[in-house]
Amino acid sequence: MRMPHPGLRVTGLESSLAFYAALGYLEVGRVPRTRFGSPTVLRLPDGPFVSLEPVHDPGRPVRDTGAVNHPVVQADDLDALVARLAAGGVAAGPPVDSGPGTRTARVTGPDGHRIEPVRWPPGHPAGMTEADFA
Question: Which helix (H) or strand (E) segment is 74 a member of?
């Protein structure tokens, strides 16, 4: 397993994107509104993969500067991971298809942070790239 990138809730999308651009992040693409907000995916200039996902939802302003929307954890076998979590007493939502060959599940940690285990389609790189938004 690995964690490809965290999703961080942001209150002001454009000001946040300007801040991350100033740090050197490049915008890879934007995802249409989802049930948890509107994600924009970023990568660092020397990295081939998305490494940060600011998520904007005007109806849910960030009240805690440490707020995390949903860290993503890559799993080679999502069904086995969900079963292992259940065996350990951790409830996870059932894996769902979330794109061509991609499956995700939802898990909530003890502090209420949502975690998104993901399984990429066979042959997909170890993280998100520009090709996922082409």
Answer: strand 72-74
